[in-house]
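[Help] Beginner question about ligand-bound structures

Sorry if this is basic. My supervisor gave me a protein sequence and a SMILES string for NAI and asked me to "get the holo structure". I don't really know what that means in practice or what format the answer should be in. Inputs are pasted below exactly as I got them.
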Amino acid sequence: MTPPLKIAIAGAGGRMGKTLIEAVVQRADVLLSGALEHAASLVLGNSVAANVRISADAGAVLKGCDVLIDFTRPDASLPLIGACAEHGVKMVIGTTGYDEAGKAAIRAAAERTAIVFAANYSVGVNLTFHILDTVARVLNEGYDVEIIEAHHRHKIDAPSGTALRMGEVVANALGRDLRECAVYGREGQTGARNGQTIGFATVRGGDIVGDHTVLFAGEGERVEITHKASGRMTFAAGAVRAAVWLAQRDKGLFDMQDVLGLRHDTV
Ligand SMILES: NC(=O)C1=CN([C@@H]2O[C@H](COP(=O)(O)OP(=O)(O)OC[C@H]3O[C@@H](n4cnc5c(N)ncnc54)[C@H](O)[C@@H]3O)[C@@H](O)[C@H]2O)C=CC1
Ligand SMILES: O=C(O)C1=N[C@H](C(=O)O)C[C@H](O)C1
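Answer (accepted):
No worries, everyone starts somewhere. Holo just means with the ligand present. The predicted complex, written as structure tokens, is below.
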């Protein structure tokens, strides 16, 4: 019998970390082998499963796992990504908000170990990415694209990783480069809208788990594609599914489109 896949969670005391622990413990084919937090965390030493306490000893946690699932913040995850590459530990990265250097570090690490890196692990959002590619190819002229996202008051990055990925999917489908056509918020005498831009608007408040709308606004009609998450288990279950999928890969960079078999040339 194959031994269960050993999964450790980085950011174990966080909103996603707690949900990920629940998602791992629920499955019979995987084992929670470690739970990691920063050295000043108030939850260090707390028991989260049989024989697993939250620890700040990254070396020991990595030694005991096959896959590390990281939902922390970029400055915390980058040293872990380096350590996983060095020790051949596979990774599922859910953290958002990396700059270009951070993304380059993830690409470099994936030359040494297998990594799934996705801004959103829900099946619904990944299907939405797929649909957006089709919609953008059809509404490719005369439609202004705006992306609106809303999240809870604690979120520290904006726009969300999901909104940015939606922007990339639409920009790619329209033959544009998001780095050149994105407009992040508007204020004052902005002038008329440039039809080649993709606009982003961010809402933060309360306990909103994560809402995303991509609006294609034309003359006489508009199309709105919306996804709303009402709980975090959808992300956590997807991340654990990605960890199990990684068991068959040695190295390389993948995303949730690969895990779900949704990839085609353009997404
Ligand atoms: N890809 C996806 O599907 C999703 C991604 N996210 C992303 O996940 C990240 C975390 O989100 P939340 O759980 O809401 O945040 P959170 O703030 O509740 O949790 C982050 C946790 O990481 C811990 N942490 C900080 N430094 C650490 C270190 N060096 N080692 C270990 N742990 C450390 C913090 O103490 C905290 O407990 C964010 O970047 C968010 O955007 C969130 C939901 C879904
Ligand atoms: O911080 C969150 O909560 C979320 N972050 C991810 C993002 O930035 O896209 C995914 C999800 O929307 C929840």
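A couple of things worth pointing out: The mean pLDDT is 97. Residues 123-229 form a domain with the Dihydrodipicolinate Reductase; domain 2 fold (CATH 3.30.360.10). Feel free to follow up in the thread.
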